[in-house]
């Protein structure tokens, strides 16, 4: 064991969020940088002596090197056991499952999620606790404080360990178990879903294209969809994780997964299309000729979960982040279960799941999940869709249309205004907040503003409060505009504008989304003096 002085104070400018710390890879590669975060994490959780930790990442550049560093540090700090995915790979939901299944004390996940990878791109690290979910604010706060004052870290003078061979290695008093990253996850999925029903679907000629985007879900999707469930070989594409995600942007949405999106809209489309992100927690769902917006996907999954073995007794409740459309609320209402509206970010679902208040949750940003782990789970969402398709014996389009016919449709879109100068974005928010109180009752075209609020949330489980989580403008014709600043953007500020319009006129459920939402966007721009304050007239990305 040796003690090394720390010369970098890496996080002075950024407290790690619940998705951890994300920076340029080269920043992470600075001397002592990663070590500072890891030692501070160990210190913040009361040390790792005699503890069992799970370790793995999405395979991006610097993943393996970071793992070797952490192994040496864990050994020096007296950890009793490390459980590591073979080749250093573990998808985020699989890591969550392994922490839970093996009763580990926590885990370290190496990923920058859907951000591009490579030496010129991004890297990230986060700590998940015993329940398999991202560390609480208290822990991340403690890590942050520790990084500012830490002066040294502990490490050991050992050779790099073998990450490629499955099995157990003993190094001094620490055991290292290299596990197949896929098997436990596959077993979990087998427990939740009716694999025979999905197999029969494929046997009967059902076709699928799953784009793993050169990221971590490749091996998971290949094993589960092709080997176990019998989807035709080649159904899973871009299935080998690469350090720079094939130079792509592993974010499963119509913009970054355009080839899949275009295929699904063409006459060569298979029955079902899906993609997931860098670390496997996000998903995109498509049917032949139809894109399922994440907010709709959450609602359809909640409405149909009872068709699937694990959820056959019904769900206890549903949660969605505030900017996610209210489609899920209508389902919860019909099922007679609670609906929780939380601030943006997965961490708010953790307490609700641990407390048994909800079974299914999701966000408009392509994250859907359930009580089976404490992270969102891309492949789980795909399998739940497949199981529902197998039971209902209908196409994605038929299911979505029927859903809209019975619940009405929440037209939905998100506009992102990126790299807005921080002062301008702050001024925009400040001005809007100052006038929210005066907006109620204001006439807009044929409608009027019902109310406008600054969203805050009180956690029903631990009572903690989160204030000012976004501005919400409700119109009396079922329209809503929500705006907030992104917490994950890296350049300047990203202003997000979430637009939705509810339509229960059944002849109206197939209109063009952007056409339906444009009047709300225009009203919003006008009400907030958007262009004059921010200097922007059109969004950079529409999803
Ligand atoms: C974004 C998404 C949010 C998600 C988060 C982490 O955060 O909007 O739903 O939980 O990434 O994946 P934002 O940049 O909006 O703060
Ligand atoms: Zn992710």
Shape: globular
Provide the residue-averaged pLDDT. Answer: 95
In what range is the share of β-strand residues?
25-35%
The neighbouring-strand order within the major sheet is 2-6-5-3-4-9-8
* Main structural class: alpha/beta
Characterise this structure.
The structure is a single chain. By secondary structure, this protein is α/β, with parallel strands linked by helices. The chain has three domains: 2-179, Alpha-D-Glucose-1,6-Bisphosphate, subunit A, domain 3 (Alpha-D-Glucose-1,6-Bisphosphate, Chain A, domain 3); 184-407, Alpha-D-Glucose-1,6-Bisphosphate, Chain A, domain 3; 409-542, Alpha-D-phosphohexomutase, C-terminal domain (TATA-Binding Protein), CATH 3.30.310.50. 34% of the residues lie in helices and 25% in strands. The protein has 17 helices and 27 strands. Strands 2-6-5-3-4-9-8 form a seven-stranded mixed sheet, sandwiched between helices. Helix 2 (33-44) packs across helix 3, helix 7 (195-203) packs across helix 13 and helix 10 runs parallel beside helix 11. The radius of gyration is 23 Å and the shape is globular. The termini are far apart. The mean pLDDT is 95. The structure holds 1-O-phosphono-alpha-D-glucopyranose (G1P) and zinc ion. Zinc ion (ZN) binds at residues 113-114, 277-279, 281-282.
